[in-house]
Amino acid sequence: MVSTFRDAGIQSVPGSTGAICEPKRGTMDWRVFVTTFAALFIAELGDKTQLAVITLTCRHQRPLPIFLGASLALATVTLLGILGGEAVTRLVAPQVLHKLAAGLFILMGLLMWFEIL
To answer: Per the CB 3.0–4.6 Å rule, which of 13, 27, 40, 101 could disulfide with 1?
Structure first.
């Protein structure tokens, strides 16, 4: 998890307020953009959302409104994630957040290993 944050260019900055992700102003960070796109593109292939879009397209034969509706829904969910992420980084110390995230990943892995999830 920590390396994922660092790979995406999100990390604590010396002399900063201690937040994990302080907004950086200026030029577009294309590395972060491509990393985000690739990670989400791969994660979303074959998931429930894609299957729902396929089903809706087959049922209604109207790809444009389905594309626009699905795009707006995914953009809104992403915005909620960004706002939630910023709120969490303001309330939780970076070290605690890193340990909590690592613990949750381990817990999810164990639950999947033992087929509880």
So the answer is: 101
